[in-house]
């Protein structure tokens, strides 16, 4: 999608010339952090609010040097921290493509799924129904 053939991850390929995912200046492992949710995004539809607190377990994140390339190629930043660093990205051209720097499953519980997980399952169910309707018409 981005057209960066050498794109790589610093943890596994630190010498790569195109590190799309790099070590964060400050580790987020074990940290709860506020995430600002941008309007008119899949994330805002899932959460139904403009800011949430999420649990992080990571030391790596989006290399901000590639932020412009990512946006120009169709990925949008839909959640960011108080400094403006990307915490959620998504693709408007895909039915449901949402990538997070946190793990939604950490705070998901039986009977109370994380909003992003619930939104994904809801969309998958709608897609299945649409597909079944289309197959019935063929």
Describe the secondary structure blueprint for this structure.
Blueprint: E1 7-9, E2 18-23, E3 31-37, H1 42-47, E4 51-56, E5 60-62, H2 67-72, E6 75-80, E7 86-91, E8 98-100, H3 104-107, H4 115-137
Low-confidence blocks of residues: none
Major sheet size, sense and barrel closure: 5 strands, antiparallel
Assembly category: single chain
SSE order, one letter for each helix or strand: EEEHEEHEEEHH
Residue share in helix? 25-40%
Task: Count the domains.
Answer: 1
Radius of gyration: 17 Å
Strand content: 25-35%
CATH topology: Rossmann fold
Structure description:
The protein is 28% helix and 29% strand. It is of the alpha+beta class. It has a single domain (7-137), classed as Rossmann fold. The strands form two sheets. The protein has a five-stranded antiparallel β-sheet with strand order 4-3-6-7-8. Strand 6 (75-80) and strand 7 (86-91) form a beta hairpin. The longest helix has 23 residues, at 115-137. The model has no long low-confidence stretch (mean pLDDT 90).
């Amino acid at each position: 999608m981005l057209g960066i053939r050498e794109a790589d991850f610093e943890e596994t390929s630190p010498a790569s010339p195109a590190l799309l995912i790099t070590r964060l200046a400050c580790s987020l492992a074990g940290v709860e952090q506020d995430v600002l949710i941008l309007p008119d995004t899949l994330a805002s539809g899932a959460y139904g609010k403009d800011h949430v607190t999420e649990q992080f377990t990571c030391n790596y994140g989006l290399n901000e040097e590639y932020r412009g390339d990512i946006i120009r190629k169709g990925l949008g930043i839909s959640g960011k921290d108080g400094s403006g660093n990307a915490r959620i990205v998504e693709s408007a051209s895909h039915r449901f493509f949402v990538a997070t720097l946190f793990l939604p499953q950490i705070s998901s519980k039986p009977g109370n799924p994380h909003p992003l997980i619930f939104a994904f399952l809801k969309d998958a169910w709608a897609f299945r129904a649409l597909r079944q309707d289309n197959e019935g018409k063929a």
